[in-house]
UniProtKB/TrEMBL annotation:
InterPro entries: ABC1_TM_sf, P-loop_NTPase, Type_1_exporter. PANTHER family: ABC TRANSPORTER B FAMILY MEMBER 11-LIKE, ATP-DEPENDENT PERMEASE MDL1, MITOCHONDRIAL. The lineage of its organism: Eukaryota, Viridiplantae, Streptophyta, Embryophyta, Tracheophyta. It is found in: Membrane. One of its GO terms (molecular function) is ABC-type oligopeptide transporter activity. This is ABC transporter B family member 21-like. It is a multi-pass membrane protein. Keywords: Membrane, Transmembrane, Transmembrane helix. It comes from Olea europaea subsp. europaea.
Length: 181
């Protein structure tokens, strides 16, 4: 019985050795001391910030799928305006998550001040950029830029896009709706 267990465990040896190098690099990254001191007030303070995001002539392919163009010469201007979202929720909810969602407003403010992030977070103009593959993630967005073959094919609100005759977004929504029935 012991012989069988030992011989079967040897089949995991190659998987174990493959995991050793990535695990070591992850632990090295976690153990690394940051070069940034969050309590240090020194450094450049920007007088004004342009509250917009611009992507100019961006082309992108995933390394594991180099034959599929995700963005092809994509140019996009996004103006400020929406609630900030991090890890699929608001910044407040993400900070509160550290206390299993039971943090008081004062505790959240204290946490942002300790992290030297309160001034930055308070000054956010609520713009969110989401790259999504699920309809439920984006249908409430102010503007949806629909990317087809690496370029923006359509750009409107969900309610308008679903009504575009022969529209790419409308066809994706129709496929999604028929698949979920």
């Amino acid at each position: 019985m012991a012989t069988i267990a030992i011989s079967q465990s040897s089949s995991f040896a190659s998987d174990s050795s493959k995991a050793k190098t990535p695990a070591a690099s992850i632990f090295a990254m976690l153990d690394r001391k940051s070069k940034i001191d969050p309590s240090d007030e020194a450094g450049m303070t920007l007088e004004s910030i342009k509250r917009a995001i611009e992507l100019n002539h961006v082309s992108f392919k995933y390394p594991i799928r180099p034959d599929i163009q995700i963005f092809q010469d994509l140019s996009l201007a996004i103006h400020s305006g929406k609630e900030p979202v991090l890890f699929n929720d608001t910044i407040r909810s993400n900070i509160a998550y550290g206390k299993e969602g039971n943090a008081r407003a004062a505790e959240i403010i204290d946490a942002t001040e300790l992290a030297n992030a309160h001034k930055f977070i308070s000054g956010l103009q609520h713009t969110v950029v989401i790259v999504a593959h699920r309809l439920s993630t984006i249908k409430g967005a102010d503007v949806i830029d629909v990317v087809k073959n690496g370029v923006i094919a359509e750009k409107r609100k969900h309610e308008s896009l679903v009504n575009v005759k022969d529209g790419f977004y409308a066809s994706l929504v129709a496929i999604h709706m028929s698949a979920s029935c």
